[in-house]
Amino acid sequence: MKKINKPVWALPINSKLIRSGLSRKGYEKYIPYIFLLAASVSVITTVGIVLTLAGDALQFFRQVSLREILSTELAPLRASPAFGFLPIISGTIITSVIAMLVAAPTGLMAAMYLSEFASDRTRKLLKPVIEVLAGIPTIVYGFFAYSFVTPVLTKLIPTLGAKNALSPGIVMGIMIIPMVTSLSEDAMSSVPDALREGALALGSTRLETTLNVVFPAALSGIIASLVLGVSRAVGETMIVAIASGSSKNFTLDITQSMQTMTGYIVEFTSGDAGSGTVGYYSLYAVGLILFIFTLLLNVAAQKISKRFKEEY
Known about the structure:
Shape: globular
CATH class of the largest domain: Mainly Alpha
Strand order of the largest sheet: 1-2
Largest sheet: 2 strands, antiparallel
Structural class: mainly alpha
Number of domains: 2
Radius of gyration: 27 Å
Number of helices: 13
Order of helices and strands: HHHEEHHHHHHHHHH
Low-confidence stretches: none
Distance between the termini: 47 Å
Mean pLDDT: 83
CATH architecture of the largest domain: Orthogonal Bundle
């Protein structure tokens, strides 16, 4: 490239350098607007979802009283339908709790091992293998729960039903493990080595350093990973639809069939609900409740992360 010794102001107006600079300034002024549009996609999508759900859910709430919604009787296809949402709300909560009882301890212990005990070579090998679980389609998890986990559990629990809440809850926990492990491991790895070295210099063992120094220092990211895992469990559809069944009875017996909010939506959207009926609008009401659940969980995750966030 030919070297230019003259200053820019001394170059002729038709110089290639001047023209390229002017043209570059011409399109660069549009770049912030393009970035703003890209950043607005998620906001516009969220607003569209809320308006879609709220508009049709309002039609349901106008026809069904709050007292009926909070009842335990759910029979949307009966001649005189009943729309008590407590059975599907309790089913969602119970399966999510089972999932987190599996995912939280397993995921956190895996994260501690990868962050504090594993060598670099082992970490590079194991972490991608764990994250492969996140790429398996949820419908495969559903058939795995129904065809493998349930028969195995039946040998241990003879009273376990063919469709139950325990089996999909356990498999959902397995599905969430990569999320908890990956996010928690990233949070622990971001803790400065000076804290570890100080604890070890004072005579702490590797396990004591992990539990008493690294874990509290990374608590913000760990709690966020657990809350996001709960949010993932609440919104899971195919696993519970296949393995949990469609029983709308209000029960706390995890060995029996239960229906979750997502399972209710899947069942009703198969064509049973006529357009414009109360049952049709109940789909949007359940979807709105589910949206509020996940929104509150995500807001809680952000609040908790800020509350326990450590500055180094």
